[in-house]
Amino acid sequence: MKISSIEIQNFKAFKEAAHFDIENKNILVFGTNGSGKSSFYFALHAFVQSSIKTTVQCQKYFQFEGQESLLNIHAAENFPSYIRVKTDGGSSFEFSPAPTVGQTPSTDPVIKLSNEASDFMNYRLLNAFSNFR
């Protein structure tokens, strides 16, 4: 199973729905400061992590004024927030306070397994490799 597309709305830098088609095996995200690179990373990371966390642990990301809120600061309080992932096999998953499309990540054993075998890399990890002696 491979990710074919990702849609993010009201999550960190993405206020309006942003759709990303994934065409290759690996993803390299680059852009100018403030373009949403870290938000894209955190959206995927939160999505995969939601497969092993309880509903209560995940709800804190969607609390409008919560300390661990990951909502866009410019969106209205009741503006819908979600991370939707589609796979090449036709499955749809949604990580949100009230899922309306497809399945939740916690219902799929492959997403749980992908969390355990996560290959998420960010600049901190790459920097640690370059500074390793």
- Mean pLDDT across all residues, rounded? 85
Number of helices: 4
Major sheet details: 4 strands, antiparallel
What's the helical proportion of residues?
25-40%
Largest beta sheet: what is the strand line-up? 2-1-3-4
List the uncertain runs: none
Which percent band covers the strand fraction?
15-25%
| Rg estimate, integer Å | 15 Å
Distance between the termini: 37 Å
Question: Which structural class is indicated by helix and strand composition?
Answer: alpha+beta
H-E string: EEHHEEHH
Principal-axes geometry comes out as: globular
DSSP summary, beta strand count: 4
Describe the structure.
With 133 residues, the chain is an alpha+beta fold. It has helices at residues 37-49, 55-59, 109-116, 123-131, and strands spanning 3-9, 18-21, 82-87, 92-95. It has a four-stranded antiparallel beta sheet, covered by helices on one side. The longest helix has 13 residues, at 37-49. The mean pLDDT is 85.
